[in-house]
Amino acid sequence: MRYIAAYLLLQMGGKANPGASDIKKVLTAGGVDCDQELLDNLLAALEGKDINQLIAEGSSKLASVPSGGGGGGGGGGSAAPAAGGGAPAAAEEKKEEKKEEAKEESDDDMGFGLFD
Q1: Where are the alpha helices (DSSP H) in the chain?
Q2: Is the Cα torsion angle 93, 97, 103, 104 positive or negative in sign?
Q3: pLDDT in tens, 33-64
Q4: Cα–Cα distance list, 73 to 68, 69, 70, 76, 91 (Å)
Q5: Which of 46, 88, 93, 112 is 20 to 30 A from 104 (CA-CA)?
Q6: Rg value, the chain, Cα
């Protein structure tokens, strides 16, 4: 992915046919190691092809790939409690939630900061 990204950056910058040395310069400037074999394979695969046409073909192929969604519906609500038994259970749930929140807040710092 890094090789094709460097290739596309060079093309967007005005270089019609970036070569291996051009791509290598972009990658090393970004602190990325370059595997010459992978780079050569990419350039061989792209040789004589229009990158815009390849992107359009790839996009049309991706459009036919299922991407999830449409899964099962959400879980149903629980049954209503029997008359007279619902209020104490609701009070217990609220107490438990408050205890859990307090516990989570105490774990926020954990003795160190994000940038320490």
Answers
A1: 2-12, 20-29, 36-46, 51-63, 86-106
A2: positive
A3: 989 999 999 999 988 888 889 889 888 888 88
A4: 13, 11, 8, 9, 29
A5: 88
A6: 28
